[in-house]
């Protein structure tokens, strides 16, 4: 025990130990026990913090990928196929057919769905609440962005049906 070790280290004998010396030795032993416990607690939590940091870094990359996919679909507007649509000098080129535009939007929607699924699968064995919340946010983000794309696809189908 720590207290008996402290007594031995102090070269005290039990017979000569007065009450004040006993209190000092006991307090020193308790302080050592508290410090050892705090160090042990830190080391046990270190692995979890490292895993959390790694997982959050990977999830941040997936969130960035979702935004990049969203940027690819921003200029793909079904209204560009209408005759009344006018462009400016800075407008991107309108060289996609309705089929190609629909296929491109569909690919973007699928990529967003896959991004959300990869986020969920990548942390399936890690039950950290902070990481699980980040996964939920990514899934919400990708679902919302995919719904925007689905609206464009529905509009494209309506425009194609009018032709």
Task: Please summarize what this structure is.
The protein is mainly alpha-helical. Helices cover 75% and strands 0% of the residues.
Structure description:
There is one protein chain. It is built from 4 helices and no strands. The mean pLDDT is about 85. It starts with a helix and ends with a helix. The chain is mainly α and about 160 residues long. The relative contact order is 0.11. Helix 1 (about 1-10) crosses helix 2 (about 20-75) and helix 3 (about 100-120) packs antiparallel against helix 4. The protein has one domain (about 1-85, about 95-160).
Keywords:
163 residues; mainly alpha; 75% helix
Give the amount of beta strand, in percent: under 5%
The major β-sheet equals: none
Which regions are unreliable across 5 or more consecutive residues at pLDDT < 50?
none
Instruction: Report how far apart the termini are.
Output: 89 Å
What class do helices, strands and sheet pairing give? mainly alpha
Domain tally: 1
Helical residues, percent: over 70%
Large-scale geometry: rod-shaped
What order do the helices and strands come in, and which of them pair?
Layout: H1 2-9, H2 19-74, H3 98-122, H4 129-162
Helix pairs in contact: 1-2, 2-3, 2-4, 3-4
């Amino acid at each position: 025990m720590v207290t008996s070790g402290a007594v031995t280290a102090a070269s005290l004998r039990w017979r000569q130990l007065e009450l004040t010396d006993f209190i000092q030795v006991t307090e020193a032993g308790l302080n050592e026990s508290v410090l050892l416990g705090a160090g042990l607690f830190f080391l046990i939590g270190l692995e979890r913090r490292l895993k959390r940091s790694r997982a959050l870094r990977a999830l941040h990359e997936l969130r960035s990928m979702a935004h990049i996919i969203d940027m690819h679909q921003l200029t793909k507007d079904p209204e560009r196929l209408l005759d009344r649509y006018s462009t400016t000098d800075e407008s991107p080129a309108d060289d996609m057919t309705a089929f190609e535009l629909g296929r491109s939007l569909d690919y973007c929607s699928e990529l967003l769905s896959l991004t959300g699924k990869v986020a969920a699968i990548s942390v399936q064995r890690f039950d950290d609440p902070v990481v699980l919340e980040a996964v939920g946010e990514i899934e919400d983000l990708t679902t919302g962005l995919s719904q925007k794309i689905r609206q464009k696809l529905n509009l494209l189908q309506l425009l194609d049906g009018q032709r």
